[in-house]
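Let us work through a complete example step by step.
Step 1: write down the sequence.
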Amino acid sequence: MAVTHKATRNDFSDVANEGVWPGIDSRFRLIIVAGLRTKQLLHGSQPRIETDPLRRRNTTIALEEVKRGLVPFTVPAMKVNGGGFDRPLSGKSQSIA
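Step 2: predict the structure and record it as tokens.
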């Protein structure tokens, strides 16, 4: 009997490696920014791109907005404390507008 291998598809790796994302320096920042934007969309914010509401999910919309550079966000300045761990100077985590 012939052995067949199913092609596995890791959608996030395709998204993360799909080129340059404006202001995104790691896949972890991409997850945080897109997740926060998804939450905004879930709470009623209007999409910043033209979408078909019957075919697009909030996570897809958020990723596309981040990819196009339409989601402004700030990264707090970090400092190294005595224990060797980085922490935000302001005590706040990332925010998006």
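Step 3: interpret the result. The CA atoms of residues 40 and 46 lie 9 Å apart.
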